Structure formats: C-alpha cells, structure tokens
Amino acid sequence: MRKDIRLKDFKPDEHVLIVVRHHWFVFFKDVIGILLLFFLPFFAVPILSIFITAGGTNIPDGFGFFFASFWALILWQMLFARWTDYYYDVWIVTNWRIIDIDQKGFFRRDIATLLNFEHIEDVRTDINSVIGTLLEFGDIQVQTAAANREFIFKDAANPRAAEKIIRHAQEERMGLRPRV
User: Fold this and answer.
1) Which of 30, 35, 57, 88 has a C-alpha 20 to 30 A away from that of 154?
2) Over the Cα atoms of the chain, what is R_g?
3) pLDDT per residue over 65-108, tens digit each?
4) What CATH number was assigned to the domain covering residues 16-23+90-173?
C-alpha cells in the first residue's frame, strides 16, 4: 500500500487508503507467452527453408536473420505495451472516493471516479482459480446505484484486503463507524 500519492484535485482532508494494481502473475503470464513466441522463428525459418528449397527456389542468406530481427522487434513492442498496460492500470481508493484509471494502449487512458461511497450497493471479490487462491488475486466488483452501474478491476492483487478497506471507508463516510 502506497500512502504517499498526492493528486492535484484531492480535497484537503482526503488521503489515499490503498492503491490496487494487477497481480504480478498476470504480467508474468504475458511475458512467458511472448518468450514462447520469441523462439518461434528459430524453428519456423529452418523448416520453411527446407520446403522452399525443395520447391526449387533459393532463400537469400540474410532472410532468416532479417525475419528473426523483425520478429524480435515486434515482440519487444508487444512486451512494452503489456508492461505499460499492467503498470498504469490502477485503482486508487481514498477516504472520499474510488478512482479507476484504465490504460488503453500507449496514448489513451480512461479515468472513472466513484465520488460518493453512499452510492455503493455492494462490493464483491471473485477468486476463480487455484493459482488465484494460492497467490491471492482475483476480481473486485463495486456495484453502484449511479448511472455507471459497476466498477470492475480484473486480476487485482489481494482483493479481499481491498474489499475490506472499501467497506471500512464506506462505513466511515456514512457515519456507521467512528473515524480513527
């Protein structure tokens, strides 16, 4: 939990309770997939060259190196895009509101804010896998009575703790629990 985040538009008595990010395992799965794709040309180019030379045409000497380099450049960009999405997707829960920042590509960001804890009808966590249970990650869903009916954060790290903090902040804001 980071408590040193200060946004320009915070109220004077507003402070960060928790910053929720995707679990590291989500990024790890993507890295493993990209690494597997990285090795694809090392198997595909020799096999393709056997079939092409059997057909009577010759492949230029630098074709395999060019293709592998181009492929590595594309995968490097995919890895950087995944890291950017992983790093900048964040929920910031303060004692006044929930801010959902959803990074969509390199240059587009969707920011939604739930301003009143009074509008929260339900906070739910879903942990749907054995790995999610072991590593403690899952989905957090905040159901509201507002026009935007729900906030969903997929594959959040430690969703039960985030749910507990949101419920505690809601009770405190609504006067059901004394402020500490």
Assistant:
1) 35
2) 23
3) 788 788 889 999 999 999 999 999 998 888 888 888 888 888 88
4) 2.30.29
What is the number of residues in the chain? 180
Give the residues across from 175 on adjacent strands: none
Sole residue written with tokens 């905040």:
142
**Non-local CB neighbours of 26 within 8 Å, separated by 6+ positions:** 86, 137, 155
Q: Which residues touch 86 (CB under 8 Å, ≥6 apart)?
A: 21, 22, 26, 27, 30
Q: Say if residues 41 and 68 touch (Cβ distance below 8 Å).
A: yes
Q: What is the pLDDT of residues 122-135, one digit of tens each?
A: 888 999 889 888 99
Q: Cα dist. 124→20, 82, 120, 151, 160 in Å?
A: 15, 27, 11, 10, 9
Q: Which residue has the higher pLDDT, 36 or 4?
A: 36
Higher local confidence (pLDDT), 42 or 23: 23
What pLDDT was estimated at residue 67? 80
- The structure tokens listed for 109 are 């960001």
Going by their DSSP bridges, the two strands 120-126 and 90-94 should be labelled as: unpaired
Q: Cβ contacts of residue 110 below 8 Å, gap of 6+?
A: 100, 101, 102, 104
Q: Which residue, among 81, 69, 89, 103, has the nearest Cα to 33 in the 3D structure?
A: 81
* Token pair belonging to 53: 């030379």
